[in-house]
Amino acid sequence: MDIGVFGGSFNPIHIGHLIVAEEVYQQRRLSKVIFVPTGISPHKEERNLLDSFHRYQMVKYAIKDNEHFEVSDLEIKRAGKSYTIDTICALKDGYGKHHNLFLIMGTDMIIEISTWKDIDLLSRMCHFVVVNRFPMMPNGSNPSFPSQTSNLRCTEIFSPEKKAEIEQLKVTIPHIGISSTEIRERLQNGRSIRYLVPRCVEEYIRASNIYVKA
């Protein structure tokens, strides 16, 4: 099987996350996509990170009607910081080495990937699917990928073959101007998040009284 691995804080999961996962699934012809909510991220500190139980539940509800989406609690259950290499190793052990893992990431992540733990081993254990994820420009335009992956400074650590693979596997999607940060701010200010998250996620947020000011 060809399995997509989509990690993130999902704080909360929103429509943009689901569109990214579906586009990668379709364009790369994957068998399925596994969502992996982060435990404690080593790459960024998020002061407003919601308890992992709620984030996991929201992902579970958001993907329940999609038969090729799954959610994993690997990183949530892991003690200490969650490193991607540990997650990929665990998935390889679970599925077997004959299955191919495709790590889904935004361009903002691939740019910093040289700082990741055991990046050489990680690059050998999985394929990188880079999705264009740029901020909207002041004029409202949506920038596309750099013309060549070699323009990304991170790729200096990769072999020419790996660079070519990253270039071949990249996925372009229309810009989706939704962020988890904006959703949290809307909730704190009493504004609607309708159509920004699946209805089941909105209902969960309301019922659990999360993301609102105390």
UniProtKB/TrEMBL annotation:
User: What is the uppermost EC class here?
Assistant: transferase
Cytidyltransferase-like domain span: 5-186
Q: Name one GO molecular function term.
A: nicotinate-nucleotide adenylyltransferase activity
Question: Any keyword Transferase?
Answer: yes
Q: Which reaction does it catalyse?
A: nicotinate beta-D-ribonucleotide + ATP + H(+) = deamido-NAD(+) + diphosphate
First and last residue of the signal peptide? none
UniProt record, GO biological process: NAD+ biosynthetic process
Q: Which InterPro entries match?
A: Cyt_trans-like, NadD/NMNAT, Rossmann-like_a/b/a_fold
Q: Which keywords label this protein?
A: ATP-binding, NAD, Nucleotide-binding, Nucleotidyltransferase, Pyridine nucleotide biosynthesis, Transferase
According to UniProt, this protein's pathway is: Cofactor biosynthesis; NAD(+) biosynthesis; deamido-NAD(+) from nicotinate D-ribonucleotide: step 1/1
Its EC number(s): 2.7.7.18
Q: Which family does it belong to?
A: Belongs to the NadD family.
Primary role:
Catalyzes the reversible adenylation of nicotinate mononucleotide (NaMN) to nicotinic acid adenine dinucleotide (NaAD).
Matching HAMAP family: NaMN_adenylyltr (MF_00244)
The protein's name: Probable nicotinate-nucleotide adenylyltransferase
| Source species | Candidatus Brocadia fulgida
